[in-house]
Automatic annotation (TrEMBL):
Enzyme's top EC category: transferase
Catalytic activity: D-ribose 5-phosphate + ATP = 5-phospho-alpha-D-ribose 1-diphosphate + AMP + H(+)
CDD domains, A to Z: PRTases_typeI
Name of this chain's protein: ribose-phosphate diphosphokinase
Phosphoribosyltransferase domain mapped to chain residues: 158-266
SMART domains attached to this UniProt entry: Pribosyltran_N
GO MF: ATP binding; kinase activity; magnesium ion binding; ribose phosphate diphosphokinase activity
GO biological process: 5-phosphoribose 1-diphosphate biosynthetic process; purine nucleotide biosynthetic process
E.C. number(s) listed in UniProt: 2.7.6.1
Domain Ribose-phosphate pyrophosphokinase N-terminal: 13-131
Keyword Nucleotide-binding recorded: yes
PANTHER family: RIBOSE-PHOSPHATE DIPHOSPHOKINASE FAMILY MEMBER, RIBOSE-PHOSPHATE PYROPHOSPHOKINASE 2
Pfam families found in the cross-reference section: Pribosyltran, Pribosyltran_N
């Protein structure tokens, strides 16, 4: 595979996250050092980011997990990314790829109330305005809405292989079923079910939970599908307050599930998510480090972190025209 952009120099990969473990793992899997940059924060809350190497004529990749934390909000991180992209274009970068495992505002992709905003579309317009050529992201809430909103090239990664391999380790001989916690996630859950079925060589049941959300209140608990005496895997894109996932876990147990594993690529773990680690929570919770957020204080050994650095590195190398072993290539790299 060859890059669509003809450049003479090797690509530059910047990691804007202040996370030493993530930094070292990305270096290891890329097989090269990351590009250096200078960051200065000013007393009034403003900042300055500049690369410490030349980017003229080069492909550039910026890896940044856009989720709010104690020091920076999601908006703070977003502004840093946008300004840095614009800076790199001003300095002559040939192609700028934003590698954003968790894409903020992606859940607001349609109007559900009168005069609602379309935040994902506005985010796409900002990316386009500063000169992003390509977006790499992971398990967005609605892939079709993402591709409709962004006019640049979009590479959509999925965490399903990571999750499926972990589930197979937990299986202990039980028959399997996959459940979507709502009708909107059925296609995602079905792709995951197909992968589990390939790995297990057994029939894997499919189910979904009826769910309605209005004014932030979730209702509906009817299970459509056969779950009795099975290991049920609930597949969702993210966990925020945990309400949706907990309702799904309880519904699975009422439907006769033997064990319940909750899977979500993005573990936001907002206020209230600690209920997932109480007795009523899942037997196991699988999530990735797509967002740098700590587990709730009540979290216990039931939570298992799956790391995405190898997948991000393989994607960057493949986009740069290098042959890599990719067992589950994302759309756009096949």
């Amino acid at each position: 595979m060859t890059s669509p952009h003809s450049v003479e120099a090797a690509p530059a990969v910047f990691l804007l996250d202040d996370d030493s473990e993530f930094f070292e793992a990305l270096i290891q899997h890329l097989g090269t050092d990351l590009a250096p940059f200078e960051l200065r924060d000013f007393e009034d809350g403003e900042h300055k980011l500049r690369p410490k190497i030349s980017v003229r004529g080069r492909d550039v990749y910026i890896v940044y997990r856009l989720v709010g934390g104690q020091e920076l909000s999601a908006n703070d991180r977003l502004v840093r990314l946008l300004f840095f992209v614009a800076t790199l274009r001003d300095l002559g970068a040939a192609c700028v790829t934003a590698v954003v495992p968790y894409l903020p505002y992606a859940r607001k992709d349609r109007r559900t109330k009168f005069r609602d905003p379309l935040n994902q579309r506005y985010l796409a317009q900002l990316f386009e305005a500063v000169g992003v050529d390509r977006l790499v992201t992971m398990d967005v809430h609605n892939q079709a809405a993402l591709e409709n909103a962004f006019r640049c090239e979009v590479i959509h990664l999925e965490g399903r292989r990571l999750m499926a391999e972990a589930v197979m380790e937990e299986r202990d001989g039980l028959p399997l079923a996959v459940m979507s916690p709502d009708t909107g996630g059925v296609k995602r859950a079905e792709r995951f079910r197909e992968m589990l079925q390939q790995m297990s060589d057994d029939d894997v049941n499919m189910a979904f939970l009826e769910k309605r959300r209005s004014e932030g209140v979730v209702s509906g608990d009817a299970v459509i599908g056969e779950l009795e005496d099975r290991l049920v895997v609930i597949m969702d894109d993210l966990i925020a307050g945990g309400t949706t996932m907990l309702r799904a876990v309880e519904a699975c147990r009422h439907a006769g599930a033997k064990r319940v594993i909750a899977c979500a690529t993005h573990g936001l773990f907002a206020s209230g998510a600690e209920v997932l680690f109480e007795r009523s929570g899942p037997d196991r919770l699988l999530y990735t480090n797509s967002v740098p957020r700590p587990l709730p204080e009540k979290a216990n050994e039931r939570a298992r972190l799956l790391r995405i650095e190898p997948q991000l590195a393989r994607t960057i190398l493949a986009l740069n025209g290098q042959r890599v072993e990719e067992p589950d290539p994302p759309l756009g790299l096949v």
